[in-house]
């Protein structure tokens, strides 16, 4: 399912403003990348694991940054975490490869009495010559034989 990114965070009152340099190299600028659309990612199964790990007092369950890293995996780098009205939005970037465009996985985490919960997750990518993240088809460079 593909959505406008503003709809993802509009429910939390968060609006994105950015520039083209943030889309090209967000980790350097510290800005929020420009996202035009995203693909919804499932969170239910992860939240079940998170709830069990929280009850077991696993160390990765104590901060939204470490929860985000656990969700996205080792190939992603956390480029920004932003708090807004008790929610935390994390921006996680995976570099491009010959076979895949640069990926951006955005998580919205909510704090509850029992611990944290991932409320939303959206995946976008940036094609080679684009200054934004979205869900459009990319022309990938074919590896040379």
Features:
single chain; 145 residues; alpha+beta; six-stranded antiparallel beta sheet; 6 strands; 25% helix; 30% strand; disordered N terminus
Helix and strand topology:
Elements (H helix, E strand, L loop, with lengths): L1 E2 L1 H6 L9 H5 L1 H4 L8 E3 L3 H12 L8 H9 L4 E8 L2 E8 L7 E11 L2 E12 L19
Antiparallel strand pairs: 1-2, 2-6, 3-4, 4-5, 5-6
Q: How would you characterize the overall build of this protein?
A:
The protein is an alpha+beta fold. It contains 5 helices and 6 strands. Strands 1-2-6-5-4-3 form a 6-stranded antiparallel sheet. A hairpin with a 7-residue loop joins β4 and β5. It is elongated and about 45 Å long.
